Amino acid sequence: MAVLPPDPVFSLRSPDMGAVNSLCFQENERLLAGTIKGSVFLWDLQTNRSALHFEVGPDPITSLHHTPDRLVTQEKGGTITMFSIGSSSYVKERSIPGNHLGFCRSVLHTSTSNTSEQLLFYPCEETAIGVLHVTDASAPTQMLVPDDPQLPKLGGVTCFKPFECASQLFLLAGYESGHFLTWDLTSGVILDVLELVTDAMSIDYDPVTNRGIVGGASDKLISFSYQRPSMQLQRGSELCIKNPGVNCVRIRADQKVFATGGWDGRIRIFSWKSLRPLAVLTQHKAGGVMDLAYSSQPVAMWRANIMAAAGMDSQISLWDLYN
Question: Is the pTM value of this prediction over 0.90?
Answer without folding.
Answer: yes
